[in-house]
């Protein structure tokens, strides 16, 4: 039985590492949005899960009910990060062929 070519294995690992870095850079440029309350609260994140913007439509809320606003912001953040996880996972699957387990979003 022929032994493994360690040099070839290292070249493949280096190639995959470069592809992963390229995908992560691409994900930094993508955006996803989590929206709740019919758009009353929108959170935009990049494909790596970094929150970029929070938009709150003040007309949609009673100024005395900040708990509702806080809950909706939190929900929108969770949705945006979940979408970023999905997008990131799909991109990384292209590189790894689904062989390596990835926690999609780096935090």
Description:
The protein is an alpha+beta fold. It has a domain at 29-96: Nucleoid-associated protein YbaB-like domain (Ybab, Chain: A, 2-Layer Sandwich). The protein is 51% helix and 17% strand. It is built from two helices and three strands. Strands 1-2-3 form a three-stranded antiparallel beta sheet. Strand 1 and strand 2 form a beta hairpin. The longest helix has 31 residues, at 66-96.
What distinguishing features does this structure have?
51% helix, Ybab, Chain: A, alpha+beta
Main sheet record: 3 strands, antiparallel
For CATH, the homologous superfamily of the domain at 29-96 is named as: Nucleoid-associated protein YbaB-like domain
Shape: rod-shaped
- The rounded Rg comes to 20 Å
* Percentage of residues in strands: 15-25%
| Tally of helical segments | 2
Please count the beta strands (DSSP E, at least 2 residues each).
Answer: 3
Class from secondary-structure proportions: alpha+beta
The residue ranges in which pLDDT falls below 50 over 5 or more consecutive positions are none
Strands in their spatial order, largest beta sheet: 1-2-3
Q: What distance lies between the first and last C-alpha atoms, to the nearest angstrom?
A: 44 Å
What's the CATH class of the domain at 29-96, please? Alpha Beta
At the third CATH level, what is the topology name of the domain at 29-96? Ybab, Chain: A
């Amino acid at each position: 039985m022929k032994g493994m070519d360690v040099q070839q294995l290292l070249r493949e690992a280096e190639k995959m590492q470069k592809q992963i870095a390229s995908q992560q850079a691409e994900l930094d440029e993508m955006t996803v949005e989590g929206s709740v309350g019919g758009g009353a609260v929108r959170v935009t994140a990049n494909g790596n899960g970094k929150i970029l913007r929070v938009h709150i439509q003040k007309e949609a809320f009673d100024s005395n009910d900040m708990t509702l606003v806080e809950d909706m912001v939190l929900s929108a953040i969770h949705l945006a990060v979940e979408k970023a996880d999905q997008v990131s996972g799909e991109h990384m699957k292209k590189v790894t062929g689904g062989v390596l387990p990835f926690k999609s979003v780096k935090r």
